[in-house]
């Protein structure tokens, strides 16, 4: 007689199985569709120069989306990343122009690597504060990070009383003249920021798929109470994801200040919305417990190509906002449909195995 396992293994795929497979691949399908559409609708869309430009725009969103993917998988949200981008950019500008004044006419000046390290630590610190509010004081992630959104934006404005830090070319005497290369430099034909994104993507994917920490992140989002009872240190996991999200925002702040050779406190406004859209479009479930880094990267490309393609077609910025909003709504609706369909398929498999 055929065993239950063998019967389940040879069970033919139903229409629900094929539909579920299509829903799981929705981000890749969407990417192919927008590429095909804009390659015909927008002139020179597939040129090498435009591809590199789009990749730069995508990278900005992708860094934030990677950090938010981990946060959302745990069942949380981080609304403060856009403001942290502005704050860390201002910190970078201050350090490049002024260093740290220690009084008596003396100041400490930093080279590019030291500036980058300080800015990244500042982002991690802000993320850590979010994590403490959520894990120690039981503040809802939405409220904690919404509050931090205002705190970080206000701090960015206080740095220069709302003014821009211009001419961030650095000083060769202090070793900070290479600061603009973070956002504008090239290596082996690709922008430095793209190599940074590749490294971050590989590292994040390794953490998610190959480490106990990654398994704990998914377990926390899937069933926080069950994860805690099974020995997962949920508070530490949440601290990590919010600190990692802060680090990603700091990297974006560095890149933008370097690209523009200027830092403005309003930088990063509404960045969190595009990043959330990329993560959700990439298959990250807003209810937690499900998401993939590679899916988020594809989602970031979809959002980036959609934005740049609409600009090249001359579509009004107002309509661009409408389209992005519709994309976010559609992504959430499809995610909910996938969850319901997965439950239906799992139930059908249980019934089949019990016969």
Which descriptors apply to this entry?
disordered N terminus, two-stranded antiparallel sheet, single chain, 3% strand, 72% helix, 355 residues, ABC transporter involved in vitamin B12 uptake, BtuC, mainly alpha
Spell out the blueprint of helices and strands:
Blueprint: H1 4-9, H2 15-24, H3 26-41, H4 48-73, H5 81-97, E1 100-103, E2 106-108, H6 112-135, H7 141-160, H8 181-184, E3 186-187, E4 190-191, H9 192-210, H10 212-222, H11 224-229, H12 234-260, H13 271-281, H14 293-312, H15 317-354
Antiparallel strand pairs: 1-2, 3-4
Helix pairs in contact: 2-15, 3-14, 4-9, 4-12, 4-13, 4-14, 5-6, 5-7, 5-12, 6-7, 6-12, 9-10, 10-12, 13-14, 13-15
Descriptive overview:
The structure is a single chain. By secondary structure, the chain is mainly alpha-helical. The chain has a single domain (14-347), classed as ABC transporter involved in vitamin B12 uptake, BtuC. Helices cover 72% and strands 3% of the residues. The chain contains 15 helices and 4 strands. It has helices at 4-9, 15-24, 26-41, 48-73, 81-97, 112-135, 141-160, 181-184, 192-210, 212-222, 224-229, 234-260, 271-281, 293-312, 317-354; strands at residues 100-103, 106-108, 186-187, 190-191. It has a two-stranded antiparallel ribbon. The chain has a two-stranded antiparallel sheet with strand order 3-4. Strand 3 (186-187) and strand 4 form a beta hairpin. Helix 5 (81-97) packs antiparallel against helix 6, helix 6 packs antiparallel against helix 7 (141-160) and helix 6 packs antiparallel against helix 12 (234-260). The longest helix has 38 residues, at 317-354. The radius of gyration is 22 Å and the shape is globular.
């Amino acid at each position: 007689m055929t065993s239950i396992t063998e019967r389940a293994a040879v069970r033919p795929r139903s229409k629900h199985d094929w539909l579920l497979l299509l829903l799981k691949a929705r981000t890749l399908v969407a990417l192919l569709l927008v590429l095909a559409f804009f390659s015909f609708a927008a002139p020179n869309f597939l040129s090498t120069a435009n591809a590199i430009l789009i990749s730069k725009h995508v990278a900005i969103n992708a860094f934030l989306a990677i950090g938010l993917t981990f946060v959302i998988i745990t069942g949380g949200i981080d609304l403060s990343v856009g403001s942290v981008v502005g704050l860390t950019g201002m910190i970078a500008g201050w350090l490049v122009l002024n260093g740290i004044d220690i009084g008596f006419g003396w100041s400490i000046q930093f080279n590019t690597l030291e500036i980058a390290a300080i800015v990244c630590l500042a982002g991690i610190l802000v993320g850590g504060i979010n994590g403490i509010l959520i894990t120690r004081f039981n503040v809802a992630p939405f409220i904690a990070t919404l509050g931090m959104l205002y705190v970080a934006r206000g701090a960015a404005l206080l740095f220069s009383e709302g003014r821009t830090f211009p001419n961030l070319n650095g000083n060769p005497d202090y070793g900070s003249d290479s600061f603009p290369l973070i956002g504008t430099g090239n290596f082996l034909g690709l922008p430095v920021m793209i190599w940074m994104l590749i490294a971050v993507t590989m590292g994040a994917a390794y953490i998610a798929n190959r480490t106990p920490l990654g398994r704990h992140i998914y377990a926390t989002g899937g069933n926080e109470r069950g994860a805690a009872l099974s020995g997962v240190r949920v508070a530490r996991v949440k601290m990590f994801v919010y600190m990692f999200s802060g680090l990603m925002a700091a990297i974006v702040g560095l890149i933008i200040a370097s690209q523009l050779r200027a830092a403005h406190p309003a930088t990063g406004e509404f960045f969190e919305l595009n990043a959330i859209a990329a993560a959700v479009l990439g298959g990250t479930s807003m209810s937690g417990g499900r998401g993939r880094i590679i899916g988020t990267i594809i989602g970031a490309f979809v959002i980036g190509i959609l934005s740049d393609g609409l600009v090249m077609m001359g579509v009004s910025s107002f309509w661009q906002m409408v389209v992005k909003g519709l994309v976010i709504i559609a992504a959430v609706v499809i995610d909910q449909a996938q969850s319901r369909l997965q439950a239906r398929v799992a139930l059908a498999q249980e019934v089949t195995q019990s016969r």
